[in-house]
Amino acid sequence: MSQATPSRRPTRRELLTGLRRQEILAAAIHVFGKKGFAATCVGDVAREAKLAKGTVYLYFDSKEEIYAAAVRAAVDRLHALAAARLEGVEGLRQRLSVAITVRMEFWYQQLNLYRLLLTVGREAQHKRQTHELMRAGHAFYRSILQAGRDTGEIAAGVDLDTLAWAILDMVRGCNERRMDRLTRRTPQQDAEAVTGFVLQQLDLPGSAVAAQPALQSPGAHA
After folding, report:
1. Run of H or E including 90
2. Mean predicted lDDT score pLDDT of the chain
3. Domain total in the chain
4. How far from chain centre, in Å, is Cα 122?
């Protein structure tokens, strides 16, 4: 009987490398948000991270590469967070509520990076990554809806692809209004409204959605 190969523990060097990369990415997002992407140079990031400029170049070739890595790292955290929050949650109503809420809350905590996605992410050299991010968001909501169809909660005639894009667009719109301070609604309030709207489109009106545990968000009405 074969035995599972034990997973290799990362070396001290690998741990330090990962930690240093995280420090650089955190510093970069802070500086990008404060000065703007165009006005920021690698030296600014190095000073914020309290590192020599040459040290930053050991990990990243340019500020564009730093931005791309920051987006990938954020998406990885979001996927892990969503998977953890959805674990053990059953039923379309509750899973849809959690799926929408977790993404609303996450991007509210990542406003500096979200601003970059709306500006730098639309530049030609970054559009591919931005489109991949959008497709991943669509696939995430599509999987929630497909699970509802599999359990018979969603009728066979519903266009799940279009509905998943609509959910993504509504979430993005709520995030952008909050970022631009055009609303005082919290991520949780917007998530509840979007969830209710989607359930109505699925002919499931009056669905009581239990409140989900919220992430700690600074300035909830910002």
Report:
1. none
2. 86
3. 2
4. 17
